[in-house]
Structures are given as C-alpha cells and as structure tokens.
C-alpha cells in the first residue's frame, strides 16, 4: 500500500468542525430551493464563486448567508448526519462538532429543537457507522456576553450532549477578557472550555485568552507561534491547539502550508489535533488535511498516528471512552504498518 493510501486509512479524531460549515454543496443547493435567502446559485459550478474568499471577513459573510438557508430546525438532522458520514469516509472515529445556536435563534429557531435534531443525526450516524460525536456551543463573540449567558442557561436545561462552549466569529477588536464571566459561569456548570483565538488577531489576544478565560483547548492558535514563552505556557497548562491547516491557508492566516506553525507547536510540547473547520467551504476533509501535512510538512505515518493519540487525550470524553479509542487506534495502526 502506498504511504498516501495508508494515511487515508489511519483512524482519526475531529475536534473542530462547524456543522453549518460542513453542509454539502448539493445540500446547500437543496436548502436554497426550500426557501431561505434564495441565493442566485443553482449549480455546483455557481458555488465555486460563492466559496472564493478574499479574506477572513469575507468568509464570515459567506458563512452567514449559509446560516440563513437553515429555515427550520429539522434541517439540522440531515446536515449533522451528512457531516458525520463525510467524516466516517475519512475513517474519523470521534467528532466534537460546533453548533452556533444564536445564528439561528435570532432568526426565530428554537434551541432545544435544534439540539434534538442534531442528536438525531448523531444517533443515526453512530448506529450506521459506529462514529461518536458530542456538541460544543459556539456563543459567537459578535453577539456579546449577555447572549452568551442566556445560551448557558439554555444549555443547562436543554443542552443534551452539549459538553463544551467556545467563542468564534469576529476576533480582532473583541477582547477575550470581555468573556471572563461567561467562561467562569460555564466552568461552574461543568462545561469544557474552548476559544477560537490567534486566527485573525495577534498574539496578545491569545495571552489574554489564556489568562482570563483559561480554556482547555484553543482553536487555530496560529499567532501563538510568534511567542515561544506563550507556547511554553500552553504546554505547562496542558492547553491543546486545534490546528486547522487548510482553513488557515484559505482565509490567509498563513501564506502557504509550508509556513503553518503546527510543528512549532509540537516542538514546544503542545498537544495538537488536526481539523477541517468548514470542510466543503475550504475544499478539504480529514484525509486532505493529513495528506497535505505529509506532502508539505513531511509528516510521517507514525507522526500522524501520534497526533491521533494526542487528540484522544485532549478530547472531551471520559476515560473509558478514551481507552476504547486508544485500543482501536493502535490495533488499526498496527495492521497498516
Ligand atoms: Zn472554527
């Protein structure tokens, strides 16, 4: 078997994927026909222009238009199931998916109903493919901390399978400290903590996030590479980085994959995972991420397998589940090499 075929067959973990950012292009056209924004796109070819971003802000605008196509809670079952089917096709065993609830609640959709349909999609995928998945609610910085606290209340009473929170959306100009109380409250509720940081703003934002929000993982973290002292701090605190290499390339957070700091993170002792973020929107999937790391940054099969094992350690699952995955990863790996 070629190295590339072996890499595709490696068992994998996905810790950073947005459900809405995973909508298949065919499904997006179908949703568009159901009503919603009625975007002027009818064919898969039309969508190529739609997915061509000029920068991070432009990407967020496109993302918001896709959000607008979800006009009923029930669509969440289909898009969650299809997201997990795509992940299964890359031999992903466990997914921690991101749900930006308020993007839809301000359009009139109901939190509990959306969570119900997401869990239906998860249950269907688990029954058919054996893949597991938990949910993290991205409170989205743009909406402010009051909305975030309201979402924590929703999670408390109706957040079945919601295990963590996150702050995504606009980064530059919204100081992490603004969310200190939100993270403190979430911590008291027993939720795990993540923050998108160091993707579209500088290293000072990452420092502030670590100090005031005390997350367990950081999404992207690209800017952290500029400061070895910060990386050492992340390593000491056991904070993992959810790297999203192809996303960083497409939004311009890095100029080329060869410049991606994933190795720099690992050399400083930080546990990393490899993730797709918004797969069809960035023309990627987990196999592509792994293959690109192999081609552009020289990652070996063994190194990629070790990233998988590290990702199990930093996942928000209990020890029994971690042990089950470790055994499964090792037994599949041994058969491949
Ligand atoms: Zn993200």
Descriptive report:
The protein is an alpha/beta fold and 337 residues long. The protein has one domain: Metal-dependent hydrolases (TIM Barrel, Alpha-Beta Barrel). Helix content is 52%, strand content 13%. It has 16 helices and eight strands. An eight-stranded parallel sheet has the order 1-2-3-4-5-6-7-8. Strand 3 (132-138), helix 8 (145-158) and strand 4 (162-166) form a beta-alpha-beta unit. Helix 5 packs parallel to helix 7 (111-129), helix 8 runs parallel beside helix 9 and helix 15 runs antiparallel to helix 16. The mean pLDDT is 95. The chain binds zinc ion.
Features:
337 residues, alpha/beta, 8 strands, 52% helix, globular, binds zinc ion
Lay out the secondary structure:
Blueprint: H1 3-9, E1 12-18, H2 25-34, H3 44-50, H4 56-68, H5 75-89, E2 92-99, H6 102-105, H7 111-129, E3 132-138, H8 145-158, E4 162-166, H9 180-188, E5 192-197, H10 203-212, E6 217-220, H11 228-237, E7 240-243, H12 245-251, H13 262-267, E8 272-274, H14 286-297, H15 301-313, H16 319-336
Parallel strand pairs: 1-2, 2-3, 3-4, 4-5, 5-6, 6-7, 7-8
Helix pairs in contact: 5-7, 8-9, 15-16
Q: Distance between the terminal alpha carbons, to the nearest Å?
A: 9 Å
Beta-strand residue fraction: 5-15%
CATH topology category name: TIM Barrel
Top-tier CATH class? Alpha Beta
Task: Compose a concise summary of this entry.
With 337 residues, the chain is an alpha/beta fold.
